[in-house]
Amino acid sequence: MVVRRNGPNLFLVETIMKKTLYLLGAGASANCIPTVGGISSEMMALDRMVFTSSIKDNGSIKNVFFSDLLAKEFVEDCRWLGENGLSHGTIDVYAKKLYLKNEKEKLQKLKLTLSFYLLFKQMHMSHDVRYDVFLTTIMKLNNGKIVIPDEIVIGTWNYDNQVLIALLNILGLFEPSYALEFLDIHPWHSNVHSKNQRPKLFHSNGMAGFATSAFGSVDYYHLIWKRFNNDSVNEFNKIYREIAPGANFTIHFAWENEDVVERVRSSFFNEITQVETIVVIGYSFPTFNRDYDKKLLKEAPLLKRIYIQDLNPDGVIERVKSLTEEKIEIVAIRNSDQFYIPVEVAI
Known about the structure:
Rossmann fold; globular; 37% helix; alpha/beta; single chain; 7-stranded parallel β-sheet; 2 domains
């Protein structure tokens, strides 16, 4: 509750909703998506990853590898990106190099390849069920309708679609546009205006499987629901081969300031002004994101407590302390079996 002066003898009492921000990093999706340190190696291994095996008449085993099914162009692009990711330390470092050298075509190729690789992973891997447990736990019934509480804000640096997949899995209907009734997902829903106030999910670096162009936007989330089979892989390959040259895949990096992602970040900072609690899951506050993370903590003036959920939280805690001069209580959560739900969240 905040009391504001509203004239010489009048005071306005304003009730401010106490919000909790969930800040997600690569560790939050690690059961499905490889982390920064492992994704480059995986992208180079499609010709060694077995999709299915069968026993031939002579008793020998016949393996079908993912590279046998995926478009040759996609496999080659994954190998190219994986090799450069390894030689530069991470894909992020390679992307920064291309950005600094103004090698726009290669940077665009990197984003296209990474976006479709994450789609591919989510087609053939089961999603991380920790998202299901988290959403189911915090969801409530309001007049017979399932709702995510307004006091929950979700911010993620991940490009994957694990929140969307879990939400639609719980609802029992994988129709991506249906998610809009429950959760505003930015940048996907950034241009959709609704009279109803809903909780928000902000992809601060953009999201895989979503692209914009001069003709509008397009997403490929239906491929995730189809899973990995002959039908879906044929469609996947066709789309990858025929993707429009002008398509801008909304995968961005912390140092980029393109309009789409800048609008997401601006909306995110406006949303967290009422945040009193932050739950950090699998996010390491890396060097590349330092300026952004400083602003995040600055734009949450009501912040009182931060929970750091990580198998090795000590280094993360030290980095958080270096980003702010405010005295904020920091609590380490060393168990990663499920997403932590603090007492501040009413369930």
